[in-house]
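lol ok so funny story. i was supposed to be doing the assay writeup but got distracted and ended up predicting the structure for this chain instead. priorities right. anyway since i did it might as well share w the group, maybe its usefull for someone
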Amino acid sequence: MRGIGRNVILLSLISLFNDISSEIIYPLLPIFITSVLGASTVALGIIEGVAESTASILKLFSGYLSDRVRKRKPIVVLGYLISNLSRPLIGITNFAYQVGIFRFLDRIGKGTRTAPRDALLSASTEKESLGRAFGLQRAFDHLGAVIGPLIALSLLSAGFSLRNIFLFAAIPGVVALLLLIPVQEKAGGEGKRFSIGRIDQNYLRFLIIVLIFTLGNSSDAFLILKATAVGIPLMMIPILWVLLHLVKSISSTPAGMLSDRIDRRYVIVLGWIIYSAVYFGLAWAHRPYQVLIFFLIYGLYFGLTEGVERALVADLIPREKRATGYGLYHLAVGIGALPASVLFGIFWRLFSPAFAFGFGAGLALIAALLLLFLVRSKAE
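and the output, tada:
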């Protein structure tokens, strides 16, 4: 592919195998914690909440460290190593707190590697191909989220226990680690030190707008609740999940390529408008086929925004400070995600599911308008 170097291909394949490993475990983890270990849903919530919060905060610090030492690959390798050493060990646990420890380590690994990896990927790509590169990486990541659950389902059908399935997840994890070996990083610094200026104010506005959008972007678990509430059988939920990730994977690369040709803000705004439309639709959907259609359209939102937002970060931040920039971006998403699901749950319970979905849809529209009028699309 034009403008896509070896590093981009390798990092995309690494994301593929790492996500296969993760998604073999993740869909089965709630069942393991509550049914096999006998822990409560409260324990599950604490484990996931602490894990994701830690990852969000670490993304900023690892990005800052990467910019300070002018190195990307060693921090990326450390992050993948921590995750892939700890994740399969969930299979040997006997208590929920032990799962919490390994899940915590897994997310530490994610928080450590994400911002430096995004900076390494952007540094390995020509400017005119940034959208395509990030779209490819997200496509492979979502493809892993398709393959992983299918492997888990196959192993369950073959009679494997949950513990053995978790241990099996080490295999694609090892492949991901081996693929890190040929990844190359340019020696030395990446340019002069970053100076505070107009670009920082522009990027700050972008982060605030991302935060506003994320406050209305609740956990996808609520979409699952909506699906079951309208009568979609429980056995169909994994298939629905696979279809969602398949749409994400298929749409990510074309969306990234489109953002290389037109203003990236327009692609992101289109994605946020689709998100708003899906949430408005889910607010009033009462039949299984309606929810199925909205689920598939929801995948387009991811395809249009995930990779393109990261490419826009590379447009707005100088190369020598991109890891810190990506850390701030992921931190903004993490900060918004924490109260987003809490608010959604409160609105669902106190008012109605329609009110909760409508709240998310409204914030998405507000964020889309703010992005168009308050953020410049290119760094000056």
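Confidence is low (pLDDT under 50) at residues 188-198. The chain has 15 helices and no strands.
back to the writeup now i swear
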